[in-house]
Amino acid sequence: MRNVDGVFGLTHESHKKDVEQVYLRCSEGAIEWMYPTGALIIHLRPNVFPSSSKYWTVCIKPLKDSAGTNIYLERTGELKLLFRDGDHSPTRVHCFSYEQGGLFVEATPQQDISRKITGFQYELINKGTASDLHMIYAPCRPCSDTEVLLAVCTSDFVVRGTIQNVLNEEEGQDSVIDVSVNRIYRQKMKIFKPAEETGIWEGQIKTLLQCGVKPGEGDFLFTGRMHFGEARLGCAPRFKDFQRMYKEAKDRGLNPCEIGPDILHL
């Protein structure tokens, strides 16, 4: 259930007090509203079972140059401000429970709206409720054997590689990990590509700055998911440790999935 909405251009030219209804049916996507006046009420109506809605979290991230509106969480007429017009923080992401309500996007008074475009990306995530995207995806602790084996089966990318460099982004509170890849087991998007000069496969993965990732020797198994177009780190055991836990589970018939016939001999 990872269909992506198209990016809508919504041109509002009627009375400035009008309120329009928008329904989103996909589990992730983006919206753009050109020349915002009045307001939008945005209803999330993805194709999930109503009984499972309490297990879903919605995360939204305004587009880089989004301007001209305030974005609220709306439930039964009550509004909670999520993003104020003019907030250009690079870490602007907010998550809330699917059951908490929908979004109310209100245009702010403007002398000249001709250049204003507001927009945001959204994702529906099968996780517990949290107010911070980072807390959902990247806890700074080692994964258990069971978590690693499940991550191998369910992650958007699974690769064996080494850490070449780590760049800490203080403003965004992220660390960017430069990974040199020895083997790709899965990647749903082209995160890792061969370098033009060397032909060596490489790519970047982000994680929390507070996790304190540093360059080090040895191979790791990197797993994780794509969020808002970025690769976010999940479980990342040393490869020899992964081989041990994989063999133990395989011998006991407890592997949730097979990753490859040669995994134990690499």
Automatic annotation (TrEMBL):
Q: Please state which protein family the record places this protein in.
A: Belongs to the meteorin family.
Q: Where in the cell is it found?
A: Secreted
Q: Which gene encodes it?
A: METRNL
Name of this chain's protein: Meteorin-like protein
Its domain of life? Answer: Eukaryota
Q: What keywords does the record list, in alphabetical order?
A: Disulfide bond, Hormone, Secreted, Signal
Q: State where it is primarily located.
A: secreted
Taxonomic lineage of the native organism: Eukaryota, Metazoa, Chordata, Craniata, Vertebrata
Write down the InterPro entries for this protein, in alphabetical order.
Answer: Meteorin-like (IPR051998), TIMP-like_OB-fold (IPR008993)
